[in-house]
Design a protein that fits this description.
The protein has 505 residues and is an alpha+beta fold. 40% of the residues lie in helices and 34% in strands. It has three domains: 195 residues, Lipocalin (Beta Barrel); 94 residues; 143 residues, no CATH class. The protein is built from nine helices and 18 strands.
């Protein structure tokens, strides 16, 4: 290693290891402090808040760590999602300074069509506050895309039925004949009434006589009830006066309204024949299967294609909604090597039980060179030297991971060599123990595969610490280490991009 004496050789010194380690640690501390205070959702000297529960019929697309908001402001995060009595039970960790009243309503919402789901809390109206472990009484589940598609299918079927009805009713020759028959029947009915009036004139006169008698009775009743009728008439007069007053006060608006109604009536009268003609043409086109609506109503193939397209949209939305992206970097100080190993990682997670991991590794022991030399000191005397020199080198990893319960198995390229690994998750995924093995054909100056044992713990939302043993199977190159790192998911990256002080020209 640069800055250390060689076995049998001199000392080559360019830039001391202590200076490099000091600069790296100083930069890491400044960066870590800035990201922790400026970006991370971190509160010092305070607890993790309190836990409340909500029960939903469906939580499709809602993941653990999803935001919990009130009035659009983040107040916590989803901690757990489980099945309880055929219902989805969601545990929400609320910040300790947020007070929520009983009677609150929990609703699952989305920011956009392709956006992630979150829980919105609508503040309650009761005096008593929710405490740790309480349940939210009322909740609203996210709309089911399948039900929406079913409703669209039903609407399309109804449109098709209505169109067919209009086509059969208005365009059929039988309908025209029925209308002509109705007109003829009305004429016949008028003629029949005229004949009845001539034939039964006596009966009609008797009816008129009875009506006169009824009028006389009404006059007697009016005389006997004159005073109540007078009051009624007086009230009617008062109402009439009030109406006159209202009319006088609003004479100009009433005139304008009447004029507008007259204009609308005239426009309708002028346009009615053209409208009826266009409706008749439209019905004929639909009946012949012309145009988009006609094809949709008369071609089953197009209808089936529309249904298939809607199903494809559903699958695309579902897959996009589950996709996650995570960025992270960490540094591990190797105590036995007195140097630091750095990692930059990108994790693509299409669903909860599998992901793809890509890493760039800055390894201080990346390139190992062994040199054997012979030096003649005196005539007939030779000294053999064995020099091992290590240099920094960038290495790459590309792994596929699949999770089964609390255990995740990984495999693929590990630091430029084939390898396998496993992770065991505990404490709601805050802590994990990892075992990795690669370079099964051994290394230069190493007999056994490279085995790494790591234990890590998430301190805050974006900050984690780790420790372990690197190259545990080889005594010469084995080293204990301790480190820390930062990790950012989709929501964290959105927050960072909106908070970074970037000025554009």
């Amino acid at each position: 290693m640069e800055g250390q004496p060689n076995h049998g050789g001199g000392c080559v010194q360019t830039f001391t290891t202590e200076v490099k380690v000091g600069i790296f640690i100083l930069v890491a501390i400044v960066l870590l402090g800035y990201m922790t205070v400026k970006i991370g959702d971190i509160t010092f000297g305070r607890d993790d808040g309190y836990l409340v529960y909500g029960v939903f019929d469906s939580v499709a697309g809602l993941d653990v760590k999803a935001p919990v908001k009130m009035s659009g402001v983040g107040i916590g995060a989803v901690e757990s999602v489980s099945l309880d009595d055929n219902k989805a039970k969601v545990g929400m960790r609320i910040k300790p300074d947020i007070k929520i009243k009983q009677g609150v309503v929990a609703a699952i919402k989305t920011e956009s069509l392709l956006g992630e789901k979150y829980v919105e809390l609508l503040q309650g109206d009761k005096i008593v506050l929710l405490k740790d472990g309480d349940a939210i009484e009322k909740s609203i589940s996210v709309a089911d895309i399948d039900s929406l598609i079913t409703k669209l299918d039903s609407v399309a079927g109804d449109i098709k039925s209505i169109s067919g009805f209009f086509s059969e009713t208005l365009g059929a020759p039988e309908t025209k004949r029925s209308i002509n028959e109705i007109i003829i029947n009305m004429r016949n009915l008028t003629a029949s009434l005229s004949n009845i009036a001539e034939r039964d004139s006596g009966a009609i006169e008797k009816v008129i006589s009875d009506l006169n008698e009824l009028i006389a009775v009404i006059k007697v009743m009016a005389t006997e009830n004159r005073e109540p009728l007078t009051n009624v008439i007086a009230n009617l007069e008062n109402i009439s006066q009030d109406m006159n007053t209202i009319t006088a006060d609003n004479k100009e608006p009433l005139k304008s309204t009447v004029a507008n109604l007259q204009q609308v009536s005239e426009d309708l009268r002028e346009r009615a024949p053209r409208i009826l003609e266009r409706v008749d043409k439209l019905v004929d086109k639909v009946e012949r299967g012309e145009g988009t609506v006609g094809k949709l109503m008369n071609e089953d193939g197009l209808y089936n294609k529309l249904d298939s397209a809607l199903a494809g949209v559903e699958k695309y939305i579902s897959a996009t909604d589950r996709f996650k992206l995570n960025l992270g970097f960490r540094g591990e100080y190797l105590f036995d090597e007195n140097d630091t190993k750095g990692y930059f990682s990108l994790k693509l997670q299409p669903n909860e039980d599998k992901y793809y991991l890509f890493e760039v590794v800055d390894d201080p022991n990346g390139r190992v060179k062994v040199t054997d030399t012979e030096v003649t000191t005196t005539p007939g005397s030779t000294v053999k030297t064995h020099e091992v020199r290590k240099e920094n080198e960038l290495k790459f990893s590309a792994q596929f991971a699949r999770r089964f319960g609390n255990v995740t198995f990984r495999g693929g390229l590990m630091e430029d060599s084939f390898g396998v690994g496993a992770d065991y998750h505990v404490i709601n995924d805050k802590a994990k123990a990892s075992l990795d093995a690669w370079k099964f054909d051994g290394e230069v100056d190493a007999e056994n595969p490279h085995i790494k044992v790591t234990a890590s713990y998430t301190v805050f939302k974006t900050l984690f610490i780790n420790a372990g043993v690197d190259d545990a199977a080889n005594k010469k190159t084995s080293s204990t280490f301790a480190g820390a790192g930062l990790t950012f998911d989709d929501e964290d990256l959105k927050y960072i991009m909106t908070r970074l002080p970037i000025s554009l020209p």
